[in-house]
Amino acid sequence: MCRVRRLFAARRPVVQVMVLHSVLTLAAFSSGSGQAAGKDRATEAPESSKTVFAPTTDTAIHVDWPRKVRNRAFSEGEKLTYSVRYLGIRAGICSLEIPRIKEMGHAQAFRLVALSRTNSFFDKFYKVRSRFESLIDTEGLFSWGYLEDQNENGVIRKRVSDYDHIAGVARVTSYPVQKRKKRKENQSPKIETATLPPACQDVLSALYYLRTQDLQVGQVYRLPTISGIKSYELIVRVVREARVKTPLGRFQTLELLPEVKYDGLFVNKGKLHVFVTNDEYKVPVLLKSKVAVGSFKAVLIEKRLGQMLAVSKP
């Protein structure tokens, strides 16, 4: 316990170690926003996120992209729950869920929700109740929008990103940071725009796109990705096969090594290892990382198939 207290005194570096949201979305390397892991029940929305996410501009126009991705990996109704340990200590729980498909005019999108909570023990040091949402086109599996609603130790940060693939523009709305003891009233949000690469991913949709691919050892995937107004190339290497033990049983998996290439340079190379099932579902069952101030591990503890896959599964 004393060691945990000393590490939390370092503030943000330790929080970044426990970036469960980023881990689950292959973006532990993304700059800026670290999230800590969740609690025993990840079904409740944090207090700061009672509004339903919707894009801020009209992105309801259907686009005939060069690709239409075949998806047998996930569907509406899927829910994955992970238990996180930091330095061997249980820290919390995070869930990834597709509660429904959202109608967007002539397009449809998977509404993907990621919730993270620290448990009662870690609440004493750094309480986290955070929510992230992605709108993933059901045909092209690119992102229409992304919501970040973070509540970390009484500090609330909220950002809504709207991706207009027709105009090739990302519109990002950042709301004033709110602190528990220093509330800011009547401050306007900051709105920024940036060029949007074709069929661009957010940090959540990137993982779900990869789940639909026929991953093979030795392959390298390069995905155009955006976080805020920063675009970068997400590079994912399939490095080896591995057998992984979880509370749900043993799984034959593929180990993925994600890296970020930003402005020609690699950022946080090789810090994260993601293990997905070596089948058509590519479910992430284990995520782990080692950094200067310790290590963490997120392991799958509950899995619910989506409605379409649950019906069609033999």
Shape: globular
**C-alpha Rg, in Å?**
19 Å
Portion of residues in helices? 10-25%
Largest sheet: 16 strands, antiparallel
Portion in strands: over 45%
Number of strands: 16
Order of helices and strands: HHHEEEHEEEEEEHEEEEEEEH
> What's the number of helices?
6
The N- and C-terminal alpha carbons lie at a distance of 48 Å
Derived from helix and strand composition plus strand pairing, the structural class reads mainly beta
- Mean pLDDT score: 78
* Poorly predicted runs: 8-64, 310-314
- The structural domain count equals 1
How would you describe this structure in keywords?
16 strands; 13% helix; 314 residues; mainly beta
Task: Summarize the model shown.
The protein has 314 residues and is mainly beta.
Q: What's the arrangement of secondary structure elements?
A:
Layout: H1 2-8, H2 12-17, H3 20-24, E1 79-86, E2 89-104, E3 107-118, H4 120-126, E4 129-137, E5 143-152, E6 155-164, E7 169-174, E8 178-179, E9 190-195, H5 203-211, E10 220-227, E11 230-246, E12 249-262, E13 265-267, E14 272-277, E15 284-291, E16 294-304, H6 307-312
Antiparallel strand pairs: 1-2, 1-16, 2-3, 3-4, 4-5, 5-6, 6-7, 6-8, 7-9, 10-11, 11-12, 12-13, 12-14, 14-15, 15-16
